[in-house]
Amino acid sequence: MIKLTTTSRRILQCLLALCFSSCSGIQNSINPAGPQADSLSRLWWLMFIVCSIVFVLVMVALLLALRKRTPHSDVTPVLEPPADQERRKRNVVISAVTITVIILFVFLIASFSAGRSMTAELANKNGLSIELNGHQWWWEVKYQDVDASNIFTTANEIHIPVGVPVTFSLRAADVIHSFWVPNLSGKKDLIPGKINTIWLQADKPGVYRGQCAEYCGLQHAKMALWVVAEPQEQFNAWRQNQTQTSMPPLSDSQKRGQQVFLSSTCVMCHAVNGTPAGSNIGPNLTHVASRNMIGAATMTNTREHLAQWIRDSQSVKPGNRMPQHNFNEADLQSLLDYLQNLK
Amino acid sequence: MSTRTIIDVSELPHHEFDTYDPVWWGNNFLLAIETSMFAILIATYFYLRQNFTLWPPPVAQLTDTLRPLPELGYGTANTILLVLSCIPMVLTDRAARRGDRHFSQIGLVIAIACGVAALVLRSFEYAAVYFRWDSNAYGSVVWFLLGMHMLHLLVLTTECVLVAIWIFTREFDMKHRVDIVTVALYWYWVVGIWLLIYAIVYFTPRFG
Amino acid sequence: MSDERAKQPPEISTSTISDEELAEVMEREKGELERTWARPRGLHGWLIDTDHKAIALRYIVTAFVFFVLGGIEAALMRIQLARPENHFLSPDKYNQIFTVHGTTMMFLFAVPIMTAFGIYFLPLMIGARDVAFPRLNLYGYYVYLIGGILLYAGFLLNTGPDAGWFAYVPLSGPAYSPGKRVDIWAQMITFTEISALVGAVIVIGTTFKMRAPGMTLNRLPLFVWAQLVTAFMVIFAMPAVMLASSFLASDRLIDTHFFNPAEGGDAILYQHLFWFFGHPEVYIIFIPALGFISPIIITFTRRKIFGHLALVLSLISTGFIGFGLWVHHMFATPIPQMGQSFFTGASMMIAIPSGVQIFCWIATLWGGKLNFKTPLLFVLGFFAIFILGGLTGVMLASVPLDLQIHDTFFVVAHLHYVLIGGSVFPLFGAFYYWFPKWTGRMLSEWAGRLNFWLMFIGFNLVFFPMHQLGLHGMPRRVYTYLPETGWGMLNLIASIGAFILAAGVLVFIVNAVWALRVGAVAGDDPWAAESLEWAVSSPPPHYNFHNIPVVHGRYPLWQAPEDAPVVRGLSTTKRETLVTSVLDAQPELRFEIPGPSIWPLMVALATGVTFIVGIFTPWAFLVGAILAGGALTAWFFGDPNYENRPGHDTEEKSETVVPPGELQPKEV
Q: Are the CB atoms for C430 and C375 separated by under 8 Å?
């Protein structure tokens, strides 16, 4: 038995903590919050445990093989090793290969059945239906519905009701992106010229972070999104709000802010329903104040961050498509008042 | 006093036809590389076809047809020429094997003429396709198929010229007789691959 | 004319000679043989030298330089990722660096260095004097060098490619990657792919036709089998990347629409083309390393390998199956699930031949007369690291699980475990094993151990935490990450490990430089090994073998009888080697090996003009083709024998090979 000194025990504790830390993460594939991620997580643990055992066994076999030491003087090559030994080794090797094949079959079957759970709800038209369009470097989110008045477009933040399957139709506007919310499911690519489909479901309320998982250029690293899973009533209320047109500006500052918005380059890219601004080159801002994050889940949606983003988004996300703006202080504050009113 | 056996190879020849010569192997593996390339290019042709309801796609200027199929004239003439050119090539091959310098010279000159003619006909084939390489994916892949094969025709003809110059001006030695046989193999391959490409480019759109 | 020659050709005769007389004759011939095969002098000589050993060592040194450059790029990335929201590298710089890192390691280091070992050792291991096509060999090297210079010229001028080593469209297409960055990448591919294909044709031609008498296929060393399987894979895989990069380049430069969905093109087509090459590519890198492991194990266990036939069949089946896996890189695309499942099956199945090899090697080690020299240490390191990588590979093979871990740091961990564990560790073992043969000096054993442990520990520190990072949501190819993700600690550990790994590589470099000057003299066969390269001096003479040996078994040096026959009759005034039949290695020809020439360099430069200037204008293809055609013509018409050039000693020497009649059998 090895006696652990205090130091080595502390090191061991650190290592263990590292191994199992952030198991409760919100962007974590082995912290499942829905049936798909759960099925995948279970497949992961099965494979992990079996593979770890295999690895240990092979390493033990290797170490045992290295045991025998002959004197360094004995270098005569053995071209005819004892036949019975060779026969025994042959049997062991054949058994090992057979076990390998069996394990691979088990994996194949486990994999296949987990795969079925991924396609299970794709034909379901009763759940929620969302169209996702990937842009460099933000997510255009369009909620579909049979009733046209329930269709609306938002960006970078997706709300879903708990316990309801959500089908995503995935498209890309420019290059290949990949939609990945590890707590809820695996990923699927968004490919220009193609339509891909994925379904997922959250069984627990919570916030789950997703991130683009296919290299898409300069700001691939900061193309993330939030999936907010909430109880059905809360979701309905959120959705109801999102379908409304934008909040009209009430105070003078807000009205002035709207003027600033409509008369500057903002309208070239951003849409606000209920105003002449209708471009969809950039994220839809109709309810921007209702979002938790800005910049595709890069910064929290505070007044300060919003100001920084408007003035100089290049310092936050260098290379992103939004130009810098030199608003004077009064204009900027009014603009912020207007934007923060767009709940 | 120990002795050992000597295996004396000093009487072995330097060159021999077919599988004896490393050049045969080298040539054939180069052809294997090019065959893989064409196989993948052909797979690309059929893969892209899936993206089109009409293949070839419609052309605005042609109102009498929805699918402007490549015109058969030049392509078919070229195919017939290339197939027929194998005959003098086989005879040249045989002449090189039996050491007939005069016949090899004639044969190579005929081959060069066929090659040049094929190149000329090929340059007309591009116009027989109703699209340019930059019109759409159909145009791109068809031009690539025709173009890669044309490159081979060019290299083949040039090789014939080089070997011909040698056997006209220098010794008709075994090494260069093997070269003639190698060029002949390349010739058959170029024709064979062309038959496949011809069928695919000119005929598969006509049937389905 | 041909069929009768298949039997014992009448041109071969046998006789006997005493060892004394043989030694005398060889002494007389030696000077002339050395002159015939002499390395040409000076800078000009260096440019035209076609000796396969010289070319191979150039490949190895060049590839190692690229390895170090790729390692520096990795170190820069690790510095950037050591902390969240780090500002050490801008996103643009980071994206160029990870692209150039991957491209360098895959195209400029791994494949060329594996080819180089083949080019160096195949003639020696099979008993030949050179490779089948030495000038083509030299051309292949120059083309590779030009490609590498192109990439780094672009990178150092801040126009390095930045779309990833795989350069997916549409990101790499004309709309989203303006400028020449991706064009530089696409044309570099052309150069390295030409070089690899040339190398493959040479490997196959040499292995098939130039083996010493007695080396039937049954007796082919496992090193040679590995190189042969790899060469076949190169022949069938490289054309796919050639088309992928050509289509990409033409989409960018002349407006074709292969990948433009608006005109019927297809982004997924690019992925199919690239990965049809890309998956075999990793086996092209891995399989030669398997060919290093067997000889090292044989030598350091002092016994014949366990399961020779199983190992050969495993190599071949790995090569075949490797072509059926490529879609496992594309599981997140809209390819139908049923089709994808086939690739899960194949990707798992390839673990079986790998497993067979592992088990056979462990069986060989078991009870062997183990000698724990540095080469064996690196092989043991291979076991620990590669097996772990292979197991994570089986996990990635599963479509559903892959959809979680695809494109995350889990894959980065996996690929480095299999490539570094599976190829780089055996490569370092091979360096320690064969350095004495190249240079005549031994590397330091204790520095070798230091090298090994630094690399082993450093490697695991870098890449093991990445498994967890991937599971915890960290995608690949990100220049930074937010602090809230909690990925900081593991990234820091990985970054520290990177420097330990780098220290290991540095120890190797110091060891090599030191050994070149003052290392212990190696002698012909410092390891008392079993294959033919150890039968000649270290470094070998330019002509490799004075007399082509006759092979009696799989382990020629361990099985050679005292009075083994030798082959004589090859010219000493012209470069000749013996060509034998493919299956049974029966002598067939005295093949003339072309000597040094300037034309491979000229054709390579013309190739360079064609494809580099072709980035800027399509007319370069016409001009380059004419230049290449001219150089090729000069090559064709040029003199095969360097010695007969004007200015060199051109005195026509009569053959001093003693004709058979003169060797009288002596009574014993």
A: yes
Note whether A317 and C85 are within 8 A (CB). Answer: no
Give the C-alpha separation, B133 to C257, whole Å.
Answer: 8
Which residue, C185, C198, C284, C197, is CA-closest to C244? C185
Query: CA dihedral defined by C614, C620, C625, C630, rounded to 10 degrees?
Result: -130
Q: Which pLDDT score is estimated for C662? A: 36
**pTM given for the model:** 0.94
Q: Do C303 and A77 touch (CB under 8 A)?
A: yes
- Give whole-number Cα distances, B124 to A252, B9, B117, B146, in Å: 73, 54, 11, 11
Cα dist. B154→A295, C322, C537 in Å?
Answer: 56, 35, 47
- Using CB atoms within 10 A of its CB, is residue C78 exposed (0-12), middle (13-18) or buried (19+)? buried
Distance CA(C587)–CA(C604), nearest Å, equals 34
List of residues 6+ apart from C261 with CB closer than 8 A? A192, A193, A194, B51, C267
pLDDT of A3: 47
| H or E element in which residue A209 lies | strand A206-211
* Backbone angles phi and psi of B152, in degrees to 5: -65, -40
pLDDT score, position B124: 94
**Alpha carbon distance C588, C572 (integer Å):** 19
Give pLDDT tens digits for C341-395: 899 999 999 999 999 999 999 999 998 899 999 999 999 999 999 999 999 999 9
Of C9, C204, C660, Cβ closest to residue B25: C204
Which residue type does B205 have? P
Residue for token pair 């199929």:
B69
* DSSP letter, residue A318: T
The token pair at B63 is 């109102």
Q: A166-172 and A128-135 as β-strands: parallel, antiparallel, unpaired?
A: parallel
Smallest CA-to-CA distance from C66 within C39, C100, C95, C89 is with C100
Q: Which residue has the tokens 């007369």?
A: C369
pLDDT at C87 over 70: yes
Interface probe, candidates C272, C482, C557, C559, chain A, greatest A C-beta count within 10 A: C482
Judge contact between C203 and C122, C-beta under 8 A.
Answer: yes
Cβ–Cβ under 8 Å, residues C347 and C327: no
Q: Which of C15, C264, C566 sits opposite B57 (nearest CB)?
A: C264
The CA-based diameter of chain A, rounded to the nearest angstrom, is: 98
d(Cα C393, Cα A200) in Å, to the nearest integer?
A: 26
Lowest mean pLDDT among A336-340, B56-60, B183-187, C333-337: B56-60
Cα dihedral: C276, C278, C279, C285 (round 10): 140
Alpha carbon separation from A181 to A111, A210, C336, C610 (Å, rounded)? 20, 4, 21, 47
How many Å apart are CA C580 and CA C544, to the nearest integer? Answer: 17
pLDDT digits (tens, 9 = 90+) for A209-220: 999 999 999 999
Which residues of chain C from 368 to 387 reach within 8 Å of chain A, CB to CB? 368-371, 380, 383-384, 387
Q: What is the per-residue pLDDT for C63? A: 98
Residue C463 has phi, psi (to 5 degrees) of -100, -20
Does C399 lie at the interface with A, CB-CB under 8 angstroms?
A: yes
Task: Give C 180-209 residues with CB within 8 A of chain A.
Answer: none
Contact A176, A191 (CB under 8 A): yes
CB B173 within 8 A of CB C291: no
In 3D, which of C322, C312, C426 has the Cα closest to residue C378? C426
Please state, in angstroms and rounded to a whole number, the distance separating the CA atoms of residues A20 and A31: 11
Q: In degrees to the nearest 10, what's the CA dihedral of C458, C460, C463, C465?
A: -110
Side chain identity, residue B199 = A
Of all helices (H) and strands (E), which one includes residue C589?
A: strand C587-592
Tokens standing for A326? 């030199």
